[in-house]
Specification:
single chain; 58 residues; mainly alpha; 4 helices; 0% strand; globular
Amino acid sequence: MEFARRRAFALRGQQVTGRDLLAALAADPRCRAVEVLRHAGVDPAALADRLNEPSPQR
C-alpha cells in the first residue's frame, strides 16, 4: 500500500487508484498476486512497465 500511495502522489499528487495498487502488486515479486498473474499467463514485469507508461486517464 505504501508503494501505491507514493506512486499516486508522485504521479498525480492525488489519492491512490486501482492502477496504482495493481502497479504495486505487480512490482513485488514476493506478492501472491504475482503468482496469480503468472498463472493467468500475464508477465508481471511487463505489466508493471505498461502501468508506468502515460495514460490518457491520468
